[in-house]
Amino acid sequence: MSTIPDLATLHALNAAQQPTYPDRDAVVAATAKLRTVPPLVFAGECDDLKDKIAQVARGEAFLLQGGDCAETFAGVTADNVRNKLRVLLQMAVVLTYAASVPVVKVGRIAGQYAKPRSSDLETRDGVTLPAYRGDAVNGYDFTPEARVPDPQRLVDVYNSSAATLNLVRAFVTGGYADLRQVHTWNTDFVRESPIGQRYEAMAGEIERALTFMKAIGADPDEFHRVDFHSSHEALVLEYEHALTRIDSRTDQPYDVSGHFVWIGERTRQLDGAHVELLSHIRNPIGVKLGPTTTPDDAIALAAKLNPANEAGRLTFITRFGAGKIRDGLPHLVEKVTAAGLEVAWVCDPMHGNTFEASSGYKTRRFGDVIDEVQGFFDVHRALGTWPGGLHVELTGDDVTECVGGGEDLLEMDLGNRYESVCDPRLNRVQSLELAFLVAEMLRQA
After folding, report:
1. How many C-beta atoms lie closer than 10 Å to residue 35's C-beta?
2. How far apart (Å, rounded) are the C-alpha atoms in residues 331 and 318?
3. What is the 3-state secondary structure (H, E, C) of 292-343?
4. Most exposed of 104, 143, 237, 284 (fewest Cβ within 10 Å)?
């Protein structure tokens, strides 16, 4: 049986981006509660996802991973969850149909409640308070009371994640994900846009194909349901450690807080607590790699996190920025490939492209997002490797957080519906537009 290090050992390592809890007894009580709760996901489901990501690593499938920058407790509603699921299903259908490639569907959902920050403190109008680190840690309101890290919120994360997964499973198995619903996923505000019309035309083609299949007596189960998996950044050590359990089938530890967990750009230190913890669990895992990553860093991370070089175990999620990807990514992919390492390569075109608009809002240009994805595809095509997937911050709602796209959102439009508590997300129309553009890149790849 494999064992995992205790929390004290992890905290003695380089434990970056952790909340400073003022009440240690409250931390002990919260983690004790979490150690007794049922798992949010099952080890067998994690193994199934690992098999699917192995297909991505071999160039036989494409990974679509998307959802909120940071989930909020208030956002756990049926409408909100359905809208996120709907846009991911729409994107997956576009990619599958237009590019003829199986799509592995993973949500940044049911656990994405904590965020790393560049500073521990935030100052407004001469008042300095602890930074907002996500609903898992403290409150968004800029008051001393709200900003105190509260470990009870970790129990709230578990409860909110359980409610979210219940909703997702109900939608996915209750007919909502049926491919014959492909038209009903399109609401009026999308249908009126050029991208919506293009989606409708494709939905019509799919419907005719399904009618033909039914006429000849073919109606496979895959038409009526989808496999949908959850993921989040494994950031708060107390939460991830408390939800790591020994699987009764294999005697191996799994982090049952989500199917897929990843290590962020700020917490990927080789001698750090996050790399140490995730090296012991058997889930499929990811690591974010930014422009400071050297090929030697990537190879050392693979040796630590995937010593058996198991396909599907490790995903490298690159986040360079549109201006750096064509220069920075080739050396990384070349050296990792030459070392014979089994990894899936996924593009995060969001985190390297954030800037502050003149209005003060954090935003991203849709054109920069597309340019980074195109650079990702260009590099892999030149090297003969597989551009395995896309990791995006998006929402199923009609927000105004990223500028550009088919709707041509301007910086002056950002204030209309800017709802993110952290980073700007693509709205539904922009997400669908991205899916069509990526489908064209996949056809060429």
Report:
1. 12
2. 13
3. CCCHHHHHHHHHHHCCCCCCCCEEEEECCCCCCHHHHHHHHHHHHHHCCCCC
4. 143
Q: pLDDT band for position 2 (50/70/90)?
A: low
Buried b (16+ CB within 10 A) or exposed e, 263-289: bbbbbbbeebbbbbbbbebbbbbbbbb
Range in 12-21, 210-219, 311-320, 356-365 with the lowest mean pLDDT:
210-219
Residue 182 lies in a domain: no
Domain membership of residue 302 as a residue range: 7-177+225-444
Are 417 and 440 in contact, with CB atoms under 8 Å apart? no
For residue 234, report the phi and psi dihedrals to the nearest 5 degrees: -80, 90
Residue with tokens 């690992």: 50
> Is 120 within a domain?
yes
Distance in angstroms (rounded) separating the CA atoms of residues 84 and 179: 17
Whether the CB-CB separation of 257 and 232 falls below 8 Å is answered with: yes
Which is nearest to 288 in space by CA: 17, 37, 5, 4? 17
Please check the confidence at residue 221 and state whether its pLDDT lies above 90: no
At position 301, the amino acid (one-letter code) is: L
Beta strand extents in 167-272 (DSSP E only): 228-233, 244-246, 253-255, 260-263
Other CB atoms within 10 Å distance of the CB of residue 57: 22
Q: Two tokens at 230?
A: 């959850």
- Give me 185's structure tokens: 């996923």
Closest by CA position to 333, among listed 385, 297, 373, 269: 385
Place of tokens 């993110």: 420
* Residue where the block lists tokens 């505000």: 189
Each residue's pLDDT tens digit, 328-351? 999 999 999 999 999 999 999 999
Instruction: Specify burial of residue 41 (Cβ count, 10 A radius: 0-12, 13-18, 19+).
Output: buried
Angle, CA 155 vertex, CA 130 and CA 272 arms, to 5°: 60
- For the entire predicted model, the pTM comes to 0.96
Amino acid code (one letter) for 401:
E
Q: How many structural domains comprise the chain? A: 1
Tokens of 296: 């030697």
Of the candidates 130, 129, 104, 93, which has an alpha carbon nearest to the alpha carbon of residue 115? 130
